């Protein structure tokens, strides 16, 4: 039996920045990264700024192996 889940999450993805520490955060990214770690097929929909932080967030998500499509490509 195949117990893999296919899904899409949407919502805000952001950086938590505390002094010199920057971490990707937001409920949707927490959900999709956990689902991905369980072997599920998961995608994410979110809006991103057209600046260095937006590009960095997109790269972080791609590095996690999460399917992402943006209007910036």
Describe this structure in words.
The protein has one domain (6-68). The chain is an alpha/beta fold. 32% of the residues lie in helices and 30% in strands. It has a three-stranded parallel β-sheet with strand order 1-4-5, covered by helices on one side. The relative contact order is 0.23. β2 (14-18) and β3 (21-25) form a beta hairpin. It has two helices and five strands, in the order βββαβαβ.
How many distinct helices?
A: 2
Query: How much is the radius of gyration in Å?
Result: 13 Å
Widest sheet, order of strands: 1-4-5
The total tally of domains equals 1
What fraction strand?
25-35%
- Overall number of strands: 5
Helix content: 25-40%
Report how far apart the termini are.
37 Å
State the major sheet.
3 strands, parallel
SSE order, one letter for each helix or strand: EEEHEHE
Structural class: alpha/beta
The average pLDDT value, as a whole number, equals 86
Shape: globular
Model regions low in confidence, pLDDT < 50 over at least 5 residues: none
Quick structural overview:
With 73 residues, the protein is α/β, with parallel strands linked by helices.
Descriptive keywords:
single chain, 73 residues, alpha/beta, three-stranded parallel β-sheet, two-stranded antiparallel ribbon, 32% helix, globular
SSE blueprint:
Blueprint: E1 6-10, E2 14-18, E3 21-25, H1 27-37, E4 41-45, H2 52-63, E5 67-68
Parallel strand pairs: 1-4, 4-5
Antiparallel strand pairs: 2-3
């Amino acid at each position: 039996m195949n117990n893999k889940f296919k899904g899409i999450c949407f919502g805000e993805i952001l950086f938590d920045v505390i002094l010199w520490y920057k971490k990707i955060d937001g409920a949707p990214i927490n959900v999709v990264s956990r689902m991905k770690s369980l072997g599920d097929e998961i995608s994410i929909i979110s809006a991103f700024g057209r600046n260095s932080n937006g590009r960095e967030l997109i790269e972080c998500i791609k590095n996690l192996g999460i399917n992402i499509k943006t209007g910036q490509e």
